[in-house]
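Section 4.2 – Deliverable D4.2 (structural model, holo form)

The reporting period included a commitment to supply a predicted holo structure for the target in complex with glutamic acid. Inputs used:
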Amino acid sequence: MLQTIRFRALLAGFILLLSSAARADEGMWLPLLLKQLNEADMKKKGLKISADDIYSINKGSLKDAVVQFGGGCTGEIISDQGLLLTNHHCGYGQIQQHSSVEKDYLTNGYWAMTKAEELTNPGLTATFIVRMEDVTAQVLAGIAPGTVEAEREKQVQANGTKVATAAVVGTHYQSFVRSMFGGNEYYLFVTEVFQDIRLVGAPPSSIGKFGGDTDNWAWPRHTGDFSLFRIYAGPDNKPAPYSAANVPFKPRHHLPISLAGVKPGDFTLVFGFPGRTNEYLTSWGVDEIYSVDDPARVKVRAALLKIWDADMQASDKVRIQYAAKYAGIANYYKKWQGEMRGLKKLDAVQRKREQEIQFTQWVQADAARRASYGNLLTDLQKNYAQERDYVQARAYVNEAAFGVELLRFANSYASILDLINAKTPAAELKTAVDKMRPATSNFFRNYNRPTDQKVAAALLRLYAENTPPALLPAAVQTLKTQNPTTESWTRFADNLFAQTRLASEATALQVLDELAAGTATALTNDPAYQLASAVQTTLKTQIQPVYQANADQVTLLQRTYVAALRQWQTTRKFYPDANSTLRVAYGQVAGYRPADGVTYNYYTTLDGLMEKADPTNPEFAVSPRLIELYNKKDYGQYAVNGTVPVAFIATNHTTGGNSGSPVINGKGELIGTNFDRDWEGTMSDLAFDPDRVRNIALDVRYMLFVVDKYAGAGHLVREMTLVNAPAPAKR
Ligand code: ARG
Ligand code: GLU
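Output (structure tokens):
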């Protein structure tokens, strides 16, 4: 065994020498530590500006042009009037909200030709990071070693809240504390949250979502995945709720946009809010995802998407209603398949196991280490073994049982039942019920009952048949025995939908009226609620307690493991797992070899887009206007070698949440907007493969071309700061 490890290490080193130019750069770094940890390396790779120009709290720096867009994406500021660039798929929910069959902005795109035409988006926020700080000592103050996990967590919360509150007294800022390295360190983040974010422009889906789910998570790519918003502020330039009197926000910094393009080896930096990675899991942790969680979720989503897809294709109304929901479900359905494939190809579980063997040797070599870490790995292994069934059960509850929209919705009424049972005074009860009314109407706005009825037949069957029997509610056990066939599950669903009052808006509102009057049976007699409640009760009383106790134990052990790894690998630079906080990834523009005999180039063009065009396939349809520009070669200053560059890839370490992140060159100029990862690299949240992990970015010149030439919104381009324009061709 040892021999193979040494040999592999040698081999790995050898391969490194051979292809050092095209190896990806693992790491999502904390901006405030760049100077200390990364600046030298970044300079070597081509960074021309300083770490201070990227993150500073004393002067305007790149960070002042980067926002968290909504809860789950990134955006960058590209004009001195608060113009914000993000992905089309990040603005998708907003674009959908403004769309109807008559005004179908999803299909046709939307361009505000004046500021007055910019559309408001209640609930949407843009969050700047004002500063960050290591507050580990304050957060862990007074917590004795060995404190049980739940108690430790309570104290961490309390201390964290204290630190966060103190940091912003007397300001309009917000703040929070996040755990890093599994709770070995804690960081404070002070933020400025803007609440008036308006939609400025979106290309049609035939550009912004070109290639659809077929091309999603894959290279080569031709998706014009961008949309434009604008941040509005009060007259004092501070955050303010929507008001007609608000004015465009004046940022401390906006990114200049380079027209010079990219070539292999060019330095790139991705600045954004990566959501979640798990790079320090043990082999058992990776195996749990690979063999339990991912397969369960993929299996259920396959069934769900098939039904939604058929109904969306059959009706424009349903297509628009389900567009955003479908995109979200489809995205991770595909991602998890790529992840499983990548983990297998990388032999990730086995690699982790080999690392664990070396770790164990290091532990065994020293008495103090034996005392601290001697049982660590066996304990982790035991805990993962114990939770396997519970992980599977949770996946099927969330994906299958509550994949049925009716059941998830029915469950949302449970809180009112609690109020009735607690004998809440009538007025208070009425207020709570009144709050549910708009939520109810919102739900039905994007709900198609016949679709969900089919979903119920398919998903409840999957739930019944794939949950470990001991973790199924008794009622569902019975259903499972009663319904051996597809036909019988269909009949069951038909009956359920015929009897429930929660599957249409009018009757659901009636249920609310009755609840407001204190009649609990309006809900408790409803068969959909009964089923939802049985599932929820099993989750809460049988699955969650065991799962949570075990997960707490894993958290504790994992924290120790990460601390031990850092003690063991003294020369390795560690970065904390992504946790939706601001990070810098850096690397270089590079193609890659996805498979034996195949090499991928580092960029794509409009010509390649036209090669994929297929009027018979909605995912690859091209709009007449784009075809016209292509035929006339009307590319303006965005032309390169007779075409327009569309997208490029680089070796930056990114994940979900990095969508919309600025891709920045060595001089601090915008060259692209991140929107995806390659198919061969989707496992990089768990295990990184430097040869194959690439981030996919939209070339800024394609964005500019679409805004300027396609949409005729040149006024927006004039707002931006374009630099490095190639010299105009001599005639
Ligand atoms: N895969 C990209 C990301 O994770 C883009 C997803 C949007 N596109 C889609 N077809 N759902 O978010
Ligand atoms: N499309 C992803 C997002 O929405 C980014 C791609 C990735 O996960 O790497 O954040």
